[in-house]
């Protein structure tokens, strides 16, 4: 089911880790019957890696018409959501998106603190115990799942939940190819839950700097790809009335630098979060969710009440859209009270 040819050494190491890991800690799925049955809707969760919301202001509606449609003009969105508190880097934040957990293992988090594809540890091994995900919940409820990603490190998801990730398409640094694969599947056999990672802004940010001319062009290119997904949904009768797109990001990036790892910088911890599609109203996402607090320029801690909207809410709100209960032992949106309609 996977489309990436991984380097032999990495593949061999991953297989060795799976065979040598202690039973029940590495790749096992939590047994048991489905708690619900998926309701027939489809969720497409899109993460635009390294999207600093400043780029949307800089490029405006002319340069990013589709992201503006999704976040500001048609959907329910905000450009002032928050990343994970512990780290503002890619793999830890994306693992929070699909598990609903914080990062720090000792505090109930998923334990994924690395950010490359050389580590063969699974999420379960990192946490030291079983960890469920949006993939396991959808699968147990009779639905299907798919991952479409542009970085090889996202093999982590299939390695950690091999029975629950039904399709895994990884095309390294090929954003167009990933979206083409998604659109082909949307036209023929769409998954109940599709997770899409678009890494072009992050790739260019590390190479040329955040908010550079090349970075802004990359954001514009991703905008067109997001638009093509929206068009696919609108033009497909079987999707038009039952599909919701959830869009967010893992981190921003500091303008004029190639850095996004300073977790206390607003340029890094401020991200967009939005819903678009069937049943979604056109409104500000904080207005739709008065039990979440717009944090302004601040970085609220775990103890803040109310909390801001966080990228880690992707898992449980996606399950809510699909009519499935939350990820067991998760933190973000455990009550599935993040309103999307």
From TrEMBL:
Alphabetic keyword roster: Signal
Record's signal peptide: 1-28
PANTHER family: BIS(5'-ADENOSYL)-TRIPHOSPHATASE, ECTONUCLEOTIDE PYROPHOSPHATASE/PHOSPHODIESTERASE
Name of the protein in question: Uncharacterized protein
Organism in which the protein naturally occurs: Nocardioides daeguensis
